[in-house]
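As noted in the main text, all predictions were made from sequence alone. Below is one such record, for MFS transporter.
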Amino acid sequence: MAGPATPITSIDDAPLTPFHKRLMYRCSGGPFLDGYILSIVGVAATGMTTDLNLSVSALSAVGAAALVGIFVGAIIFGRLTDRIGREVMYTVDLIVLVVASVLSAFADSAWQVILLRFILGLAIGADYPIATALLAEWLPRRNRGKMLGALILFWYIGATAAYAVGYLMIEFGGDGLWRWMLGSAAVPGLVILLMRMGTPESPRWLAQHGRLDKAREVVAKVFGDSVDVDAVLAAETAGTGGRRGRFSDVFRGVYLRRMAFCGLFYLCQVTPLFAIYTFGPIILEAFGLNEGTLAYLGSALISLLFLIGCVPALRWVDAWGRRPLIIWSFVLMVIPLAVLGIVPTAPAAVIITCFCLYALFSGGPNILEWTYPNELFPTNVRATAVGISTGISRIGAAIGTYLLPQSLTKIGAGPTMLVGAVITLVGLVVCIAWAEETKDAALGAEGDRAPLATV
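Prediction:
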């Protein structure tokens, strides 16, 4: 007769349960809405420009407002999440998003659209550190890389859904439905908000803030009788002295290097990626692929491969490790951009193949955008670190998106791709120098504070 099962003494070593899977889908709402909201405005732009008589600068401001909002929201609310908790912010940011989306359907001037897009960006930027920190702090270590990395898939699903909804509205109602397009984000936003109701607070955060009774309650609720609650909480509070983190902590000692790594690799990844994803047809036309619908079909294929490239990376992140995955991904991302820059007059098949390879190889950094900062920083500043790295990345996204059309016009397609290759090469150097191996690392207090090997 089998004896009693060994009780769970650490969240890091707990078995994967249906609760973890539900939590992952709930947390995926932020990336989904980010992809949806950033993409739907491109479809709505034509009708909006006509109805509101937007100037080029006003239209640019509409496009940039959400990115600026994400930058501000990620940094401010990431810090606030470490102070007041994940659970409260987890629902408040979605309420703001739903309300702002509904109001967007009634906007009748450029400044209203710009303001509401900025507010939407604030809510999205807030959700990244909130949801990823909450998910990371509940996940077992052996599943953390794959399940955190899977969140980026929902960004691409959200972007695809936005294009589908937008084009269906144009097909059946014309460009005049642009307000309905902007307001449509409220529908998935409300669904995700309802899904998140009842999500428990992170026991790690509760323990770090001295709320041990509540921490015991949520741990027991999730794991039932199979958990040794006192042992779990002891693992979360060991050596911390109940100290709450400060914003400045992420810029001190080993955390300064880790913050530089997370922010810089993220920035170097998304600067060319966002530009290519956003202006795919324009870029392909600049390479001479302007016969019929070739540029649009090529762009659609490239966009699909950004999503597909994440799938094998999700398997490799836990089997192979974080450090080799990110280094080799950057190596393989530099090569096709360099070929495009050196041989911009290559045949159409070569041009499209290079862009497709870049999209496929970007899967590694894509799935590590939130995995790395969540694993490299302790519970008391985890959301702060995610917020800062996300904010830094949006600087690159905004710059790349703004400058790419001008670069194509002024210096041409080849030199523009060489600039992208150099930026990606900088990301590779950063990864070789500073990427740590966090595979199987504990998120408990002691594991948080110990520097991890970089070889």
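The chain has a mean pLDDT of 85. Residues 56-84 form the longest helix (29 residues). These features were considered when defining construct boundaries for the mutagenesis experiments described in Section 2.9.
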